[in-house]
Automatic annotation (TrEMBL):
It holds the Pfam family Peripla_BP_4. GO terms for cellular component: outer membrane-bounded periplasmic space. Keywords: Signal. GO terms for molecular function: carbohydrate binding. It comes from Tsukamurella tyrosinosolvens. This is Monosaccharide ABC transporter substrate-binding protein, CUT2 family.
Length: 340
């Protein structure tokens, strides 16, 4: 796959200015999305006033799998921005790329003012992104598609360099003495997940990393495949999950297999914070999904209302950052107040 040659900068000052008034970068919420048809959620974010600008409608279309609470954090950030910006937010999702592309086309046909989308399978979205651009509808990308958004003509991207994040994970594991790891991929073929595991493999110099494909929509499948792999190969000392629900399921697989590998993960939720506290999960890499959702919507509002773009065509990083024993108690305390 062709990769852009751009080298993004960490625009910390810009992030702080854009997200002013939202000290909560990650908000843990209890609800989960059911997917399907778009739902208007323009009133999220209690205590936040609306901008004195015209009412806009912005569609957010993601590759969320059913039951993956990571996306609740994305939506909470998007809802906060929508509330502030006087935006009607239409959220929809489908884990299958062709279906997600159809949702994007439906948003175009309904004449929304802007579209925020994830590019988990970039080539599937080339045509609909071009359709949006021809219709004069601005598009922002976030979470997935770091290597491809620019070549598709999208001006704004919010997320992390998944390869860089993966390398950071691998390097930390190497320092901790890991030698053999499995990397659980819950949606086979999705570029951001493959990049994470590839990065871990690069970072774990001198060790080995094997990808383990599972059905992320079936936790029984996840648990059974991890269990079987651990029983088959007792030399595995590390399980790398690519999402909090899969890390939590991996803890059950480890217990049932009678194995003792460390479990680490990308991304968090409230239950994962507890698992770090009790030692079942060693640590997590956080890409700040609340911030991704917030910026994906707020950037479109700024572009539509005032002609602004964020990042100068380069990606704006929202991670990675580590959550471990040294800071998890602070994260847990913030979670109780509904701000992480």
């Amino acid at each position: 796959m062709k990769k852009t040659t751009q080298r993004p900068r960490k625009l910390r000052t810009l992030l702080a200015a854009t997200a002013a008034g939202t000290a909560a970068l990650i908000t843990v919420v209890g609800c989960s999305s059911t997917g399907g048809a778009p739902r208007d959620t323009g009133d999220g974010g209690a205590g936040v006033g609306s901008a004195g600008t015209k009412r806009l409608t912005i569609a957010m279309v993601t590759h969320q799998q059913p039951g993956d609470t990571f996306w609740d954090l994305i939506r909470k950030g998007a809802e906060m921005a929508a509330k502030k910006d006087n935006v009607t937010l239409r959220y929809s999702n489908d884990p299958q790329a062709p279906n997600q592309a159809n949702l994007v086309q439906a948003a175009i046909d309904s004449k929304v003012d802007g579209i925020a989308l994830t590019l988990s399978t970039p080539n599937a979205f080339q045509a609909v992104v071009q359709n949006a651009q021809k219709a004069g509808i601005p598009v922002s990308a976030f979470n997935a598609g770091y290597n491809d958004y620019a070549r598709m003509g999208i001006q704004q991207y919010f997320g992390q360099d998944e390869t860089t994040a993966g390398v950071a994970v691998g390097e930390r594991l190497a320092k901790e003495g890991a030698k053999k790891a499995i990397c659980i991929i819950q949606q086979q073929g999705q570029v951001q997940l493959e990049s994470r595991c590839a990065g871990v493999r690069t970072g774990l110099a001198g060790g080995t990393v094997e990808n383990l494909n599972v059905n992320g929509e079936d936790m029984t499948d996840v648990q059974s495949k991890v269990n079987a792999k651990l029983q088959q190969d007792p030399s595995i000392d590390t399980v790398v999950a690519l999402g909090a629900p899969f890390a939590l399921t991996a803890t059950k697989a480890v217990e049932s297999a009678g194995a003792k590998p460390r479990i680490v993960t990308f991304d968090t939720n409230a239950a994962l914070v507890g698992a770090i506290q009790n030692g079942k999960v060693a640590w997590a890499v956080d890409q700040q999904p609340y911030l991704q959702g917030y910026l994906a919507i707020d950037s479109l509002w700024l572009q539509i209302i005032n002609g602004n773009t964020i990042g100068g065509g380069q990606a704006v990083f929202t991670g990675p950052a580590f959550i471990d024993k040294t800071n998890v108690d602070k994260v847990a305390e913030l979670a109780k107040g509904g701000t992480r």
